[in-house]
Amino acid sequence: MESLDPSVVDLSRLQFALTALYHFLFVPLTLGLSFMLVIMESIYVMTGRAIWRQVTRFWGKIFGINFVLGVATGLTMEFQFGTNWSYFSHYVGDIFGAPLAIEGLMAFFLEATFVGLMFFGWDRLSKVGHLFVTFLVALGTNLSALWILIANGWMQNPVGATFNPETMRMEVTDFWAVLFNPVAQAKFVHTVSAGYVIASVMVLGIACFYLLRGKWTAFARRSFVVAAAFGLASSLSVVVLGDESGYALTDNQKMKLAAIEAAWHTEQAPAGLTLIGIPDSVARTTNYSVHIPWALGLIATRSLDGEVTGMSELVLRAQERIASGQIAYRAVEALKANPQDAAARALFEAHKRDLGFGLLLKRYVADPATATPAQIEQAAWDTVPSVPLMFWSFRIMALIGFAMIALFATAFVLASLRKHMEARWFHRTALFAIPLPWLAAELGWIVAEMGRQPWAIEGVLPTFLATSTLTPAALWTTIIGFTLLYGGLAVIEVRLILATIKHGPVEEQDPQPEPGQLPATPMTA
Amino acid sequence: MDFLDYEMLRVIWWALLGVLLIGFALTDGYDMGTAALLPFVARTDVERRMVINAVGPHWEGHQVWFILGGGAIFAAWPFVYAVSFSGFYLAMFLVLSALILRPVGFKYRSKKPDPKWRSRWDWALFVGGLVPALVFGVAVGNVLAGAPFRIDGDLRSWYEGGLLGLFTPFTLVCGLLSVAMLVLHGSAWLAIKVEHGPVHDRARRFGVIAAIAAVALFAIGWAFIAWGGIGFRTVNTVDPMGPSNPLRTVTEAAAGGWLANYALYPWMIAAPLLGFVGPLLALLGIRRGSEPLAFTGSSLATVGIISTVGLSMFPYILPSSIDPRSSLTVWNASSSETTLFLMLIVTVIFLPMVLGYTAWAMRVMWGRVTTQEVTTSRDFY
């Protein structure tokens, strides 16, 4: 049996990270802005005042420029599982494919069908009809996120499925468990709220830009108020629900939690929270750390006597599971040769939960059953993700989260006191805050997905086994191709958004500026 | 329910795969055909705006058929998803890049008055329409001819071909047929959707050429299938209720093997017949100036040509040209019974809803795109 070129794994991971992080620049803004449009347009429908129509249409234009790239880059994401992660697709398609298909059927059709009407239908629909269409777009977008995060949540916490040696893949045993996976639910609300914050910061920041310039002030004032209210609610929920997401880790991904906390060893309860420090992955210790007593125990276990397991202890546990996984692997090989082998079947049933841990050894030996104790220990330490990356990504993300609450609380107070038109210091702050929530969202992706390593599916399928059988040359071709394409589109998009902002929320008199005669030479000419 | 056993569920999902592909070709097909025609049927900015507005409000919804097709293959035919997309790796990259240009082209084109800017996006749209149409056809040709992959004992697939190997005389005929079919469909749509005038006339002219090309290419393709040494058959007996494991099928190349089903099930001949009658009806419609007839013809052509492929190959979905034990069939490449059943329930509930609101969206935007509307309305991408 051939072996895979190790660089294929790294290149596939690089490509996935690039395309996913890029896709995730546009999606959160779509999620949030779509609901802000519903709010703005509802006010327009209720009051009938033209200014709110202007507000809705301007942000609708920004929404459109952004939406299109979310859709375009989402295409790559969906097919990438098949193109670059084909063994993953075979191994878990029976469960993982379902939420993706349902997303298309239930959510994306809704969003994509009505987004056309949203842009083309202003004169063809009644006011309420158009509002309803806008609402359906927002609903579709958010439902889309729900199904994608159910799929992703299953990768973090693979419930409701079991390995079938006859088909050599995971198969569904309980679809409800997949649907109501607590990790998926926590991730959904946290991610969606993060999208709402991103949209609110963008609207607030641009409104403040107009206020600083003294332009379009009537428009900016209204945008400010909507963003302040929506942003305060969502920044509070993103932190509270993020905490819920951390709580979910306590049960499901102890290793990720320990890495975030740089907890090399289990501490006596109540566990303290390491506020900052410098984790050292070689010495397996954290230097210069500052602790808050009891806080981690409170957050992670909701009690004062629960303890948070440290990485060293989790590695010991992984070693035990790897040993059990070796037995499971041997049983699968026996069943492959003879499906009627009752003894092998019984062994497999007893150890199947640890099969994935057995597969971790494939990095070091072709046949996991023959691994040495040193190799087992090495494989067990592989289950620890990059601790400094987790530690710092999480802290910067959380810090931005709290800063966003402060920003929107201030905006809300200013608006309530009717001082939001003259507080120039705040306008400047809000303008500079625009990139921050994006940074937090990308870091959040890193915490969630890099924190899952070395697993493609937590405890089930190691990432290095999940790729397609490709050549590094083919992968380089697509990585360079996507980078050029995406890079070019990013520049164009940013320029268009900036031009739209500069142009301002004017209802255009001449929607089709005469471009003069198009040369339109046929291709042959 | 005894009727809905594993075998039946597999056949239903095989049929649904066909429904999705046909749904994609019927809806997004005319968007791609229209985009491929854009630089040729429309010369001035206003004309191009009209062509773009003829598909503008709907192409996004139509594109979901493609995305749903991908998702459904992933969920119901994980083997097919894993083997085909990783095997046709660079071809998929071409398609995805072209398809990425399309949304951006539609929405960014009119954001600047600069003629050069607009002309560039028009060509991007042309690429976004033509390249996927061509590559999909070439891919179907390769599916018919068998792909060079093996599946090992862990059921991991290994592909032993390159990008250039995808292009043979037969697969090129399939690619061109796909382009002709979708250009015909696009021109039939433009004739319905755009006001009478130069664009309308040019669309009809291209429609005539595409219809004739479609009939000729379909005939050539059929000749390849009958006498070109293409086809496969199963040597061993296969349990249609058995677990999904491709290594249970032993397949051998059999020239003319794709015609065997027509002897077994004579009703299947309806599909290739439609493939010939459809373009001819479209031609008749165009010549008579009956746009509904032309569009019906181009739709029937699409249904006929795609279902010819599916029915000829049954029960194969993706035969292997190099390993007798690796071919993917309806019986060995599906999801588990539970997943197929669950997904069927979801489809039965949501697909009619999708069709319902798509029809409503079509009705809201009903009517021809006019010069008047294009030059005065503020509502466009």
Please describe what this structure looks like.
The complex is a heterodimer of chains A (525) and B (381). Chain A is mostly helical and 525 residues long. Chain A has two domains: 7-253 and 385-503; 311-381, no CATH class. Chain A is 70% helix and 6% strand. In chain A, helix 3 packs antiparallel against helix 4 and helix 8 (254-261) crosses helix 14. The longest helix of chain A is centred in the N-terminal third of the chain and has 42 residues, at 6-47. The radius of gyration of chain A is 26 Å and the shape is globular. Mean pLDDT of chain A is 88; it is low at 508-514 and 519-525. Chain B is mostly helical. Chain B has one domain (6-376). Chain B contains 13 helices and six strands. Chain B has helices at residues 6-41, 45-55, 59-76, 78-87, 89-108, 115-145, 169-193, 198-227, 260-264, 270-288, 291-313, 337-364, 371-376; strands at 149-151, 157-159, 232-234, 251-253, 316-318, 328-329. In chain B, the strands form three sheets. Chain B has a two-stranded antiparallel ribbon with strand order 1-2. Chain B has a two-stranded antiparallel sheet with strand order 3-4. Chain B has a two-stranded antiparallel ribbon with strand order 5-6. In chain B, a hairpin with a 5-residue loop joins strand 1 (149-151) and strand 2. The radius of gyration of chain B is 21 Å and the shape is globular. Classes of the chains: A mainly alpha (525), B mainly alpha (381). At the A-B interface, helix 2, helix 3, strand 2 and helix 17 of A face helix 2, helix 3, helix 4, helix 5 and helix 6 of B. Chain A: One of its GO terms (cellular component) is plasma membrane. Chain A: This is Cytochrome bd-I ubiquinol oxidase subunit CydA.
Head-to-tail CA distance between termini of chain B: 50 Å
Tally of strands of chain B: 6
Helix content of chain A: over 70%
Helix content of chain B: 55-70%
Largest sheet geometry of chain A: 2 strands, antiparallel
Mean pLDDT of chain A: 88
